[in-house]
Amino acid sequence: MSPEQRLRFHQEHSEPLMKGLHEWMEAQLAEHKTEPNSGLGKAISYLLNHWTKLTLFLRQAGAPIDNNIVERALKKAILNRKNALFYKTLNGAGVGDLFMSLIHTCELNGTNPFDYLTELLRHTAELKQRPSEWMPWNYRDTRRGSPHPPPRKMMILPGRNGSTEATWECQARMAGRQASESAKSHIVFGPGDGIGRNISG
Description:
The protein is mostly helical. The chain contains nine helices and two strands. It is elongated, with a radius of gyration of 22 Å.
């Protein structure tokens, strides 16, 4: 289905179910059928507080119905943060952050991280002269001496403080859904905070 067809499908089939769920949850709390401080009560309160964002797929064409792809991406930064406990120096920690960024950016752009890092070591002189031509999305074309396409929209860089909108945009692009040709956005995750944010440019 196209995003528009999927939206119409969800509005027809999913919206009545979501409306029923919303009414049931409100009744649980309003009629004191569930204790607010219980496990179920806290889960219902959490769901109601995030209802607008949860039901975006009923209003926005192309919006995903879950956040699993972004959650998996965040684990990269979380794992690196855990490994950082064993770095002996600040320089070692910086190198670890750099490699996390490079390796995850390679994965997002369909590049083998080991092959990419090996090529960087083989072409250190060229890399120092023209670093922008040795990115995971264009290094093969540079190595062959052919013109390379414009940069991909998927990157992993140190960053802080994200937004829900940016997180959804990250997920939509990582899921392979069509993005506007005019959108020049990057996916950014900070190794220390595990937060996704969006950079336009």
